[in-house]
Amino acid sequence: GVILLPITILGMFLGGFLIKKFKLHITEMAKFACITFIVAYLLNLLYFTCSCEVLQVAGLTAPYSGLKHLSSPKKSFMASCNADCSCKLDQWDPVCGDNGITYMTACFAGCKSSTGMGKNMVFHNCSCVKGQVYGVGNSSALLGQCQRESCTKAFPYFLALQTACAFILALGGTPTYMIMFRSVSPDLKSFAVGIETLGGRVLGGLPAPIYFGALIDETCLKWGTKNCGGSGSCRVYDTKAFRNVYLGLIAGLRAGCCLLYIVLSILIMKRFK
């Protein structure tokens, strides 16, 4: 937000400045808005190159055998190393083992003791961690999830791409509004603004959280449990499925918008030729 808000404001002001500087006709504004939206759409497809590996959670996305990946994840949280610990499946207080794998709780890591308090708590003599590192290290675990290096490395590129897309979209935002004002008769301008706002809310603002949320929920691997029972928030997502569903839906919706922009440009050029 700190980065995108100034960039968006700059793009909107620059779009208005270009209209005034070059005294763009309505047909030229239509071409300008159409080009910026198509360029932003093509840049948006580059989001698919930004990848972040799935969090390796023992028994969920990584087996207790020590392998890093599962071909078909099976939710078997119990193993021989923690079978006698009476761990509760509805708890989520993750710890990061020396082997780089996250465990749902210190209990599932088979830890016997701990030192420190709060965020600095360290668990020792963890039988599941020891079994996976084959004696290497002190078989300890730190409170919190393990860091994913690929996510940290990809984030600056993702942020730069998001900034470029936001700037280009904002650049074409002002010409789009000017097209509406110049193509509608004076007595219908306020009505046109109302219809445009209503269309945006009805088609995008209101239903979008529902169908986006439903699709995102389908990529959840581990749901939390509320104290009073029932499903809580998602603890672990399948990040690859999340990316494909989320970005794929956006790409599909924007493809339709691109088609409408092209049709709009053609109609305006015919009408105001």
Automatic annotation (TrEMBL):
Keywords recorded for this protein, A-Z: Cell membrane, Disulfide bond, Membrane, Transmembrane, Transmembrane helix
Single GO cellular component term: basolateral plasma membrane
Question: Where this protein primarily resides, as one coarse class?
Answer: membrane
> InterPro entries from the entry?
Kazal_dom, Kazal_dom_sf, OATP
One molecular function GO term is: bile acid transmembrane transporter activity
Single biological process term from Gene Ontology: sodium-independent organic anion transport
- Membrane-spanning regions, if any? 6-22, 29-48, 155-180, 245-269
| SUPFAM superfamilies, per database record | Kazal-type serine protease inhibitors (SSF100895)
Gene3D superfamilies with a match to the protein in the record = 3.30.60.30
Residues in Kazal-like domain copies: 75-130
Q: Membrane topology per the record?
A: Multi-pass membrane protein
What subcellular locations does the record give? Answer: Cell membrane
Name the record gives this protein: Solute carrier organic anion transporter family member 1B1
Gene symbol? Answer: SLCO1B1
